């Protein structure tokens, strides 16, 4: 079969030519002030817990499911639990950026977001929603 020299090169070829892949989702988050109240220490924080669109939020990079986080590190055992890392978390500091994704927990988190969103801490729920908005998602994309 002849090679079509007019066909566009594959993405791998672009990478091999020195093109840099697109920036990580968290790089779109630059206004940290709007997240200031979204902390676990804010006991007065409340949210209107609507079911979330897990697939669109994950694909957009509004959150990641990682191994269980612990301060500046994480537990390397994927069966030990998981952490929800918002795009804001990764944008605000380098601590969470190195945490490995935990695909074993995706189904658990899908159920959490779609069936029991009130089981997510208000600060994390609001971080994910604001991250999604900062990434250009609309309410139609964010909620089920």
Classification by helices and strands: alpha+beta
Strands side by side in the biggest sheet: 1-4
N-end to C-end Cα span = 47 Å
Instruction: Return the string of H and E elements.
Output: HHEEEEHHHH
Looking at the structure, what is the overall shape? Answer: globular
Q: What gyration radius follows from the Cα positions, in whole Å? A: 18 Å
What is the share of helical residues?
25-40%
Number of strands: 4
- Low-confidence regions: 1-15
Q: Let me know the average pLDDT.
A: 86
Strand content: 5-15%
What's the domain count? 1
Number of helical regions: 6
Major sheet size, sense and barrel closure: 2 strands, antiparallel
Structure in words:
By secondary structure, the chain is α+β, with helices and mostly antiparallel strands. It has one domain. 32% of the residues lie in helices and 10% in strands. It has 6 helices and 4 strands; from the N terminus they run ααββββαααα. Strands 1-4 form a two-stranded antiparallel ribbon. Strands 2-3 form a two-stranded antiparallel ribbon. It is globular and about 35 Å long. The N terminus is likely disordered.
């Amino acid at each position: 079969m002849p090679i079509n020299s007019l066909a566009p090169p594959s993405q791998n070829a672009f990478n091999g030519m020195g093109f840099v892949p697109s920036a990580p989702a968290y790089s779109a988050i630059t206004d940290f002030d709007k997240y200031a109240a979204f902390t676990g220490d804010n006991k007065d924080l409340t949210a209107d817990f609507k079911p979330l669109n897990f697939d669109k939020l994950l694909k957009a990079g509004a959150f990641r499911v990682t191994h269980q986080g612990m301060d500046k590190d994480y537990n390397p055992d994927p069966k030990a639990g998981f952490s929800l890392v918002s795009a804001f978390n990764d944008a605000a500091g380098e601590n969470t950026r190195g945490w490995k994704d935990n695909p074993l927990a995706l189904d658990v988190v899908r159920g959490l977001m779609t069936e029991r969103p009130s089981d997510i801490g208000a600060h994390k729920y609001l971080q994910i929603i604001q991250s999604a908005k900062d990434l250009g998602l609309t309410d139609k994309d964010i909620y089920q």
